[in-house]
Design a protein that fits this description.
Elements lengths: L6 H10 L2 H6 L5 E3 L2 E4 L11 E4 L4 E4 L5 E2 L1 H9 L3 H11 L11 H4 L1 H21 L2 H9 L4 H6 L3 E3 L5 H6 L5 H6 L3 E5 L2 E4 L4 E7 L5 E8 L7 E3 L12 E2 L1 H8 L5 E4 L2 H9 L5 E4 L6 H10 L2 E6 L3 H14 L8 E6 L6 H8 L1 H9 L2 E2 H10 L7 H15 L6 H14 L18 H6 L8 H11 L10 H4 L8 H13 L5 H6 L7 H9 L8 H28 L1
Parallel strand pairs: 13-14, 13-15, 15-16
Antiparallel strand pairs: 1-2, 2-3, 3-4, 4-5, 6-9, 7-8, 9-10, 10-11, 12-14, 16-17
Helix pairs in contact: 3-4, 12-15, 15-16, 18-19, 21-23, 21-26
Length: 555
């Protein structure tokens, strides 16, 4: 996909995008000198440590270390792929995306899948409007027309050929099979996957339909049926309802994670618009990463039965490796035999709110769940707790929270389990210190300085030594990257700084270039003079190499 969009178009999008305007759509930026600041959208904080540089077209957080270009911001904040970030930026600018062939919208099979899913969603919604039985079922579940419209709920009619007949007028059968709308048993046996079901479109963060969930109306099995995994749909990383929550609320301060889309719908009906659901049997690591991109305040809400408790414990284990200081994660459980849908319909908003208010912090739930079957009055029991807890706590990153969890474990077992400290003598997290300082305290070298200057002002390339001259320094670390930059500038003399850096997106050098964008060596005040002086030093190095070569040849 990425290769199909011309590099010139990507450069155009980057050159016309102002990162300040883009990020200001998500967080409120305030001017501070030559930069803008805000509380970081990637981790919880009360004092702003997130900066955006209009000059560099780059953002950086001194708290969590997040940094990058407009493309990086959309990829991290919205959970987009590279190509999707380009499409989003282009859409903001009113630009139509084209490929090298000029037919991106018409010929791209990926795009055809999106169009097919949208057409199916429109068909299901129309079928719902024309089916009294389906409407009656939704009313019996307390779902109003307003909520049905917000979530684009539909109905798949009975019969094996409704979608097949309707959509093959526009799309090939192969596309519909690839989209998961048709099932194919053999060449002559292709039929509708969803039949006589209430249909819930599953959307990505941009609002595009990528899959469907279908619920039977008569509790016939399977009660729930999701689309299969496709090019568009990966259930381990999809959050049902995230698009609707963001559309309704804007910035998400808190998310309530429930187990199914009927729970999301029912809670939205009762003004809990910040509810989403993971898809599949368990919360995945990718689910957790995606959730933390949207907010640092999460409440996992599970059924009170054995399955719900098992799901909660599995979710906690996925959270531990992703935990950061400043996030707030709690666990709430419904009464036995209830789920959020049934509880709120039978007892109302206040009852559900009570369970949310009583939700246990992660630390409390962690230890309470471990000790529930352990006799803590015995040495054997305390040893069992230590042996069970230590491998789980080892998954935590080096944070203040990890230290406090080990402290709690030591107090419970009456021992002193050693743990490498996460707190420096000055009281600063050891994990945050490298993130804050590593890129700013890079070791000074001529090559690093030359690259740092060049990616801030590509026009300095006019003052560079020739590529032929610089090739004598091929043994110098970093010189290959410097030569690559010069070659790009030679081919495109008017390339912008941010477009130059983004040429390396996905390359092993990309991270190094980002660090050099953040680096503030002392020679940045007069860039042209610094660059010329650096080239002079390179020239002296070349002369020494040539002299050494000459001496060796004479010997």
């Amino acid at each position: 996909m990425a290769g199909k969009i011309p590099q010139a178009f990507i450069d155009q999008v980057l050159n016309q995008t102002d990162i300040v305007d883009l990020i200001n759509e998500y967080v409120e930026l305030k001017s501070k000198g030559k930069e803008y600041i805000a509380c970081c959208p990637f981790h919880g904080e009360k004092t702003p440590s997130f900066t955006v540089s209009p000059e560099k077209q780059f953002y950086h957080c001194f708290g969590c270390g997040a940094h990058g270009t407009a493309i990086n911001f959309l990829m991290e904040h919205e959970g987009l792929q590279f190509i999707e970030a380009i499409e989003t930026l282009a859409s903001r600018l009113g630009l139509g995306v084209v490929t090298e062939s000029g037919n991106y919208q018409k010929n791209d099979s990926h795009h055809q899948l999106y169009l097919a899913m949208d057409a199916a969603s429109q068909f299901f919604q129309q079928q719902l409007r024309d089916n009294p039985e389906a409407i009656s079922y939704l009313k019996s579940r307390g779902i109003t027309g307003e909520i049905a419209n917000r979530f684009n709920i539909g109905y798949a009619p009975q019969g094996y050929g409704n979608i097949k007949k309707r959509l093959t007028e526009t799309f090939t059968q192969e596309i519909l099979v690839s989209a998961g709308l048709l099932s194919k048993k053999s060449e002559d046996k292709v039929y509708d996957r969803f039949r006589h079901r209430i249909m819930f479109p599953i959307k990505d963060a941009r609002g595009r339909v990528i899959a469907f969930g279908g619920r039977s109306m008569d509790d016939s099995m399977p009660k729930y049926m999701n689309s299969p995994e496709t090019e568009l749909f990966h259930k381990g990383s999809t959050l049902y309802g995230i698009y609707e929550a963001r559309q309704f609320l804007g910035k998400l301060k808190q998310l309530i994670i429930v187990e199914g889309y009927m729970d999301v719908i029912a809670l939205a009906q009762h003004n809990f618009a910040n509810c989403i659901a993971t898809l599949g049997t368990a919360t995945t690591t990718q689910n957790v990463k995606n959730l933390l991109r949207f907010t640092s305040d999460l409440i996992f809400c599970f059924d009170g039965d054995r399955a719900g408790k098992d799901a909660a414990w599995k979710a906690l284990q996925q959270i531990l490796p992703e935990f950061k200081d400043g996030i707030n994660i709690r666990f709430a459980f419904m009464p036995q035999g209830e789920d959020p849908d049934s509880l709120i319909r039978s007892l109302g908003d206040s009852a559900f709110n009570e369970y949310l208010n009583e939700a246990a912090p992660l630390s409390e739930y962690f230890f309470n769940n471990l000790v529930k079957d352990i006799d803590m009055e015995t040495a054997d029991g305390r040893a069992k707790l230590a042996n069970t807890a230590k491998p789980l706590l080892a998954k935590l990153p080096k944070t203040v929270f990890r230290d406090l969890m080990y402290k709690e474990l030591n107090e419970r077992v009456g021992t002193s389990i050693p743990v490498s400290p996460s707190i420096s003598p000055a009281g600063i997290s050891a994990t945050s210190k490298p993130q804050n300082q590593s890129s700013r305290s890079l070791k000074y070298t001529k090559t690093r300085l030359a690259i740092a200057l060049l990616i801030r002002d590509p026009k300095l390339g006019h003052h560079a030594l020739s590529i032929e001259q610089l090739s004598h320094l091929k043994s110098v670390p970093g010189i290959d990257l410097f030569l690559q930059l010069l070659e790009i500038i030679e081919e495109e003399p008017n390339i912008s700084a941010i477009a130059l850096v983004e040429r390396f997106h996905g390359d092993s050098s990309y991270s190094a270039l980002q660090k050099l964008l953040l680096w503030d060596p002392p020679d940045m005040d007069n860039r042209e003079l610094s660059f010329k002086q650096t080239m002079q030093r390179f020239k002296e190095d070349i002369r020494r190499i040539e002299l050494d070569t000459l001496i060796q040849s004479e010997n």
